[in-house]
Amino acid sequence: MSVRQSLWLCSLCVAPGLLPSSGEAKVASYWQPLPPLPTPRQEVGVAAEGNYVYVIGGILQNGSATGIVHRLDTLEGKWEVVPPLPEGVRVHHVGAASSAGFVFAIGGLNASFRAVRSLFAYDPVKGAWERRVDLPRARGAMGVAAIEDRIYAAGGQDGGASFNDFAVYHVAANRWDSLPAMPTARNHLAAASFDGVFYAVGGRAGQLFDKLEAFDTRSGRWVEVAPMPTARGGIAGAAARNCIFVFGGEGNVADPDGIFPQVEVYDICRNSWASDANMPNPRHGIGAAVLGDLIYIPGGAPVEGFSVTDTSDAFFPGSEGGGFVRGDSNLDGVLDISDASFTLEALFLGGEAPGCQDAADSNDDGRIDISDAVHGLAYRFLGGPPPPPPGPDSPGMDPTPDLLDCARYPSPMCFKM
User: Fold this and answer.
1) What is the dihedral of CA 240, 207, 251, 225, to 10 degrees?
2) What range defines the domain where residue 118 resides?
């Protein structure tokens, strides 16, 4: 299925030879340590609600399944005990999401690695769990993400079988509906949502996948978009700043611990990937939740297979948006004469302003003016120096402090599917 990119360019005005009149200085991405998870475990469900990050279930050090639940008070920086999953349920590889003020624990695998169908909702006001209607199919290790008052669940496994099942739970109606199957059956994938679109990334089913498949809830169709640079499973994913961030995972034959340290970033608007700061504590069996400006990743396993850790940290995704190639002023993925034309039209002929100011700053002097067009033309046709990093062969983040940015789009959904 083809995808037609339809990039919405921002309407900021850039005066010739001047810096933008407003805007904050960029802040690079960074990692922040968190208090250790009270009970070390992996294959947990992670969700954020209110000021709290919830960690549900998991595999303990002795390999058993658990129903314990903790939450991190992100204002106080302290972990709290939450009532465990009800009915004596003990699960790992459990899905987790928050919607309509509730935290949901969805399916999972029991101690025998057989899937369960249970759905529980935690009410933070009452401090109690309640049973909701079961999943249409028992499964764990699925990708889960919420869009408004609906929770979407894709893929997963039961024993050795992997699924492409896709269903939506309507919170208010307490009802599941089946949806068109995900194109690729897989488990241990990550999921995130942005602007009414559900994204399923990575995972495994006899092999590691790099696939990124997106379901547009408005059209009811799946489409395959740009693949992740590193195929991996056991990952965590989260949406922030017009991007999907994917963390860690297992199955790395090049690492003695079998773990991937990579943080890779999918720019939704430009259908492209870039690399960000590696995990300082690489892990698999993790989940991620966004709260405020941070992406929280508690617990997991530092070694492939059955290990556990109490390590928890948070990732600040920076303030500069997704990766770009310097000099690609019109964001068509190619450095050519059209970029100089685009810049000149924006400066002098009332053309649209660059959607990524950093990309238009071809000579990296912190401003957008005629010298950027000259620099680009000299590189392409006169043997001049290439634009400074990032690029010109691969996108990346801007290493130069300035007031230009790459994150001002009127809509994060930049593709017509």
Assistant:
1) -20
2) 30-316
